[in-house]
Amino acid sequence: MLFPAFMLTGCSYGAPKLELHIANHANAPKGPGSAFAVYAAWVRPPKALATFPDGGKPLVLAEAAVVYLCDTVTVEVHQLWRADRPAQVRSGFTPWLGPWDQDGIHVSLRGYRSLITDPATAYRVNYRLDSLGVASIITDEPPLDAATSEHVACAEAVMAAAERAPPLGLPK
């Protein structure tokens, strides 16, 4: 009897859910502002046999990168830019902000061309966003920016804005 019950459970996934998290942030070069890179994904969490042996991996339906700006005085938030995961990226997708300078905000989309984390298959595309959110692909590597403390009220406001108006629609 155990075998048929085992067969009936099968590999399955739960209902789709939206996952959001802040990847990193950058402070404005002058004036009161912070930019936040947010990872957004629709996933179906594993259930039953799909959780064996280590808890399982969610089924990823769609992924995107979003850049939000927050005024650190008023804590007003708006979405500056959004991009779907590049087709070349098959795993490990994440957005990452570089420096925010007089030329704009530098952001990269990163991941792996394979289904496993293999440095030989690393992929990255770099952009410079202007003040209107228009992206230009850049080939030069922006310099690393110094780490700064995250503006907590802005981080909370960014997450609330992303939850209120999800930056990524549920795929059909």
Structure description:
The chain is mainly β and 172 residues long. It has two helices and ten strands. The protein has helices at 2-9, 152-164, and strands spanning 11-13, 17-27, 34-44, 46-48, 59-70, 77-84, 91-101, 104-112, 122-129, 135-138. The chain has a four-stranded antiparallel β-sheet with strand order 2-3-5-6. Strands 7-8-9-10 form a four-stranded antiparallel β-sheet, with no helix packed on it. A two-stranded antiparallel sheet has the order 1-4. The protein is globular, with a radius of gyration of 19 Å. Mean pLDDT is 89; it is low at 1-8.
Task: Please render the helix and strand layout as text.
Blueprint: H1 2-9, E1 11-13, E2 17-27, E3 34-44, E4 46-48, E5 59-70, E6 77-84, E7 91-101, E8 104-112, E9 122-129, E10 135-138, H2 152-164
Antiparallel strand pairs: 1-4, 2-3, 3-5, 5-6, 7-8, 8-9, 9-10
Task: State the gist of this model.
By secondary structure, the protein is mainly beta.
The strand line-up of the biggest sheet is 2-3-5-6
C-alpha end-to-end distance: 38 Å
The parts where pLDDT drops under 50 for at least 5 residues are: 1-8
- Reading the helices and strands in chain order gives HEEEEEEEEEEH
Strand share of the residues? over 45%
* Helix vs. strand class: mainly beta
The main β sheet shows up as: 4 strands, antiparallel
Helix content: 10-25%
Give me the count of strands. 10
Mean pLDDT value: 89
Shape: globular
Number of helices: 2
| Rg over CA atoms | 19 Å
